[in-house]
Design goal:
Strands 2-1-3-4-5 form a five-stranded parallel sheet, sandwiched between helices. Strand 3, helix 3 and strand 4 form a beta-alpha-beta unit. It starts with 6 loop residues before the first helix and ends with a helix. Helix content is about 35%, strand content about 15%. It is of the alpha/beta class and about 140 residues long. The longest helix is centred in the middle third of the chain and has 14 residues.
């Protein structure tokens, strides 16, 4: 069965202040994650945690190489996935293991099996959508 985004889940995730781990966020200003993460932090008021292979800080926020590297005292509300669809399954599995409450797969990031695993583990799932596009539809 194909995943269908629940508008109520999208609205709750965008309206509820929380901590978003942005996987694939680097200092490359040309990547979509760069501006979208600023929108999530500065416009929606979320705390962001950059997750990228070298663990580089971005936007003045401490970066980590993997979700598992984020200190236990920083529970993750949403794992926002800016990775290739072929690689997102591993990120979703890490999100489940890390105790995240939701996974958000960005535009063009689609993995039905990973979405199913996340739902089965009790996570909210948004797939093939962008918070910066969804928020204005909600008046945010």
């Amino acid at each position: 069965m194909n995943h269908v985004n629940d508008p109520a889940v999208i609205e709750r995730l965008l309206r509820s202040k929380g901590r978003w781990a942005i996987v694939g966020l680097s200092t490359n200003e040309w990547r979509a994650a760069y501006d979208t993460s600023l929108f999530i932090r500065d416009h929606l008021g979320m705390e962001i945690i950059p997750v990228n292979l070298p663990g580089d800080p971005v936007h003045g926020e401490t970066g980590y190489a993997r979700l598992a590297d984020i200190p236990a005292g920083q529970p993750i509300d949403v794992v926002d996935c800016f990775v290739n669809s072929r690689k997102v399954g591993d990120v979703v599995d890490q999100a489940i293991a890390a105790g995240a409450k939701a996974v958000w797969l960005q535009l063009g990031v689609i993995d039905e099996a990973a979405a199913g695993r996340a739902k089965a583990a009790g996570l909210d799932v948004v797939m093939n959508a962008c918070p910066a596009r969804e928020a204005p539809r909600l008046g945010l």
